[in-house]
From TrEMBL:
Protein name: Formyl transferase
Domain Formyl transferase N-terminal residue range list: 46-142
Originating organism: Paenibacillus hemerocallicola
InterPro entries for the chain: Formyl_transf_N (IPR002376), Formyl_transf_N_sf (IPR036477)
Keyword terms, alphabetized: Transferase
Lineage top rank: taxon: Bacteria
Amino acid sequence: MSQPSFEIKGVVCSKAPMTKWREAVGDRDMLPAATQYGIPILTMEDVLTIQADLGLSVRFHQILKQSHLDRFSMGVINLHGAPLPEMRGSMTDAMAIIENRDYYGTSLHWMDTGIDSGNILAVERFPITSEDTVYDLFVRSNRIGLELIQTKLNAIIRGDIHGESQEMLLSSTGRTSKTYTKKEVMAWKRVVPETREEQLWRVVRAFQFPGQEPAYIETREGRIYLSAGSNNKGLGEMSLSEG
């Protein structure tokens, strides 16, 4: 907003009640901020009638159709809270921990009608420690994502950064790509008796998020919830609570 050459046509944001995790951490709502700065509040239907140069999607969970993308002459940039092209789809931060990956990250990419499949504009990766929870990765990727927008947006608008094909990057780097669904990730939340100790530690960390149901063990009497903590030696420990 501090760039004099930018005119903000409007913002589309959820009008649904604030989610439990946002209430738990005191997250700010975009609606009052947009109103404060005099930014028009748009609906998805409104987007179909505007004509703009560039769109920016940040943690936006509604589907943009080709008819929406066509309203922006340059295209729409998406901030994807995971490293691309390796991790596409939903709840990738949880899966990064469950799969014991060494690193996580954040990406900017051009949107198309696929799932996080557009050309990559910028990626920043960072290491995952043995004590990081999914919320730690979420917060870190959000912070780095904001930095990417602040440092790369002008260059993208000038045409200095065009984007690289994900398929070409996969071919040149030898990396593999996977698209995750919420359903498959959530299936990990229920801990089964045969879960190995090291896997149990990862699963517990992968579902430790403020305001959300943690990993659990199912019993006849109900669910026993699992949470991760840390002691003074930096070694992981777990605690149990009944649901």
